[in-house]
User: Fold this.
Amino acid sequence: MNVLTPVTIGLLLGLGVHQILQRDPLRLFVGFILWSNALNLFLLAMGSRTGQFAPYSGNPAPTSDPVPQALILTAIVISLGGLMFLLTLLRRLADRHGQGDLDKAQDLRR
Amino acid sequence: MGLTLLFVPLLGAILLSVILGGRIRARTLGWILAPAPLLSVGLLSLFPDGALTAAVWTPVGPPPFGNIPFGFALDGLSRLFAILILGIGGLVVFYTGYYFDEEPDSGRFFALLISFMTAMTGLVLAGDVVSLFVCWEATTVLSFLLVGFHGRNDAARRASLRALIVTGIGGIALLIGLIGLASVTGHWDLPGLLAQGHAIKAHASYPILFTLVGLGALTKSAQIPFHRWLPGAMAAPTPASAYLHSATMVKAGVFLLMRLHPALGGTDLWFWTLSGIGLATLLGGAWRGVGETDIKALLAQSTVAQLGALVMLAGQDTPAAFKALVLGVTAHALYKSSLFMIAGVVDHAAGTRDLSRLGGLKHALPGLAAVGFLACLSLAGFPPMLGFLAKETLFASVSHPSLPRFVGGVFPLAAVGAGALLIAQAGRLYLGVFEGPERSRAHRVSIFFWGPAALPTAASTALAFFPEPRWLADLFARAATAALGSSVKVSLALWTGLTVPLLLSFIAVGAGLALSALERVGLLSRWAGRFRWGDSVEHGVVLLFQRTASVATALQGGRIRFYLSIVFASTLALLLLATGNNFCQARWNFGGQWPAVAAMGVTLAGAWGAVLLRDLGAIMSLGISGLGVASLMALEPAPDVALVQILADVLMLVLFLAALPKLRRTCLPVSRSVPTLLGIGWGLAGAVLSAWALAGRPRLSRIEPFVSAQSKMSAGASDIVGALVVEFRGFDTLVEITVFALAGLAAWALIDKRAPLIRQASSPLLAAAARLIPPLTLVFAFVQILFGHDRPGDGFTAGVTVALGLAIVDGVHGAGESERRFRWLKPDRLVALGILLVLLRLGWPLLNNGAPLAPFVLWSGGPKGLALSGGLFFEIGIFLSVLGGAARMLRTQGEP
Assistant:
């Protein structure tokens, strides 16, 4: 069991929380990227076994577990869609109100 | 086809009401639609008891998941209910035509009403747990729409929402209970499940299962303390009340108790819970009803009372009780639907439903008065109406010698009291509306309008003219037998000699007349109106909601970072509750040389991205971190995922670079205290918990052997991850590409489109690249799609690859250039086409009687690895929609 895997996941999660809680809206974007990487790594590590070959039928055992890989595939696409939408929201914010500040979000209603 | 045939006329009627609604008069539409349910009743007689129509849905996985059945089954109980639902349904549809003649939106009402009828029929005919629950929830949602039909009316909206919340919570409890029952018995089909009653009752979780199912039944049937939604639901249009609150919706709870009695009934818990709650509801409804002045409110309270009586009877396990139960269900459905329809006619003719402003209508509406008189007789339980027989059997059941000693005294007393109150209600209703001085003017109404109200009442007088009809007794007996699980005999003689029940009846009548006399001087309704017991529980719930709301508004003042901090902190606290100590069982190491390098690269680049204050540097650094993640994936080895990760990472970078100049940013100062604290907490918790989770490896996977074995065999794919994405989890993938494409389309919709695009001058070298690269990406994409089944790469990577080629064109020549240069590039159409293709691929196997999503191969004669299969269509669909979505994202961020 690789010690570095949980350490990497933990560090990315912690950095992500730190970034999401900043006033600067762009830091939300940074935090989301960090989180999505951390959680994908976690899913990858949760496979039922470590392999030496890719999960293709015909490859000799031990192959890696394909199930978490398929889940990650979906997760990457969805988070990319979400990130791009977030980026567009940031642009919209810049178009309408200039520099955004999450502490002044309630002022934007007016 | 089988029992599904019954639904054909109903579905046809829904379709007709949607097509014809608003085009022809409502009364004409009523004439057209009313025969449909009656046709279904006729079709019902084609099928014998025990008929089964089952479809087995696709296996969802290896044995623990098994097959999901979906089908219908007919027995005595469902036959009786189906006849009531469809028979009264036909009358109500006809009545609706005249009631809503002026309503412009009557087509929608017809469609909702008949949809509700369909759901209700499906519910009583359900042959398995899945269809039972699906139909149950459909009735909840449709009744919400029917009660709130006049959505502009505030009271109607609130009443329908309340009904939805109460019955919806019950529905969730029922769902959990049904899944529990199915997993305890191992049967999803109802006949199999009901046969396992002894196993369920012996199981340790029986009390929980009973409570969950009971919650579902009691909320639906408006039992104390959930009874308040029913009087509120009188804000519904009267035809809906006449249907939902007499024969169908509210009876669904009683039906559920009868249906599941063989599985859950016959225990002390069953007896005491249902008898107690039913009795309280009976007395409460009877008492409150006397105090109402609105006719519909009075009828609602009497319905609550009657439902209480039915639940109480369901709680007893004697043949006598179940005989009373089926008679009570039928009698109540007949007279109550009739009375509600009368209330609607009175409302139309006299312009009010208020008892204090009505009176003497028998002069203007003699026919209606006669029907009202007979229906009230049945409500009061006088001979020769069916209501009399129902009340006699109820009295016989509550005075049954087999009852426990304590309740042997309480039950008859309470039943007689409630009977007297119901007589007072009936008297108040008839005398208040039709007798006495003429207090309101009423115009005449068409016989077709009040005719439907007369028919159920006429049916309940049938016993006077056809003493003891064999077939009817048989119908009741078979229904009661199916519910009880052992034989029940039913005789329909009105006169059985001087018996205890008759004696109780006399006492009830005497008391009822005394109460009516009290009412003549106006005392009873005043007391009943002042003291409304049984409502306090709901007041408590409302108070709780108000307190919660005030706390919530105090917490949510609009500070986003405060919310986020709370969310992160409380999730962290929850995470810390998870404990485990198997760290030591695992042998920890530093892995190989390359994974260690990659992991450190991911961490360092990620940290650098977080620390760097320059936006460009931060995002570039994160891009490197993402590539590190991709190399960790490649080392797993997971080549498919690594490829997708690389392409997604590059696309993210490209889009960000395109957007950055337009964000017009200056960085804000870094906040330190709370973010740092929570960040450290999350970092530690994340590391410790993932270490704990990982230490359990290697585990056995239940799914992995199945997909590994099946991917080549049934899906024809060597790439197991690809087979998972487009075959085993195809539905997820459909949703996934829809989300991605919609993100692209929505982003485009969100921004301001500005000045016309300017063609940039560029170096010849770059221009040549922009000319060469897009065709190359197309070739690349083509290969990926064709061989995606056996090699890394799929529709998503193909779509992103082509989009990146287009990005080069836009980058060199200016935003929008790619769309001008390539005529076929219409992102919105590509998205629509792609999703449509995937939907067609999902539905295709249905044509060959397969399950949706089943793998299929049309042609496989080509070179190795090449086949015209379902997977290929899926990949093409993914490619098109991802290309469309990504092209929209590029254009959005490139827009000046």
The CA atoms of residues 251 and 507 of chain B lie 29 Å apart. The two ends of chain B are 60 Å apart (CA to CA). Chain B has 39 helices and four strands. Chain B touches chain A through 118 residues (CB under 8 Å).
